[in-house]
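Before a computer can learn anything about folding, someone has to put a protein's shape into writing. The outcome of that step, for a single protein, is printed below:
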Amino acid sequence: MCKISDKIKFCTCDLSGIEDLKNYWILHRYDSEKGYEIIGEIILPFFISPDILKHNKDILLKRLNEPGVFDIELSLKSKDRLQIHLCWGEEEYDYGFVFENKQWVECEYDFFDWSYNHVEAEHGTIEIPFETLDK
């Protein structure tokens, strides 16, 4: 089982897509003209213990609001959303954050809801995503 590292870093990539990455982030930008619905099937995430989930969310929120967490300066706007996708072993989880009042705050990641009013603005890979725990 892994906890998120307090040294996690979000790097931009010159990639055509992120489909082949295990650990990645996507900045979703609000677009008032988009507004279309997506129909599909929701796949529930693997179980993560509440203690690990709380630790991970706390670390991510702390790091996101520190300077230098991204390798470049992003021009963030109100309503921007950040999806952080992490994979360890067979387990995957998506964390969600929204940019409000010049800081990141936690929000629920919902693929369908986010796709309805947002477009992908930036994406990248994640360096030093985990600290390994003793089993």
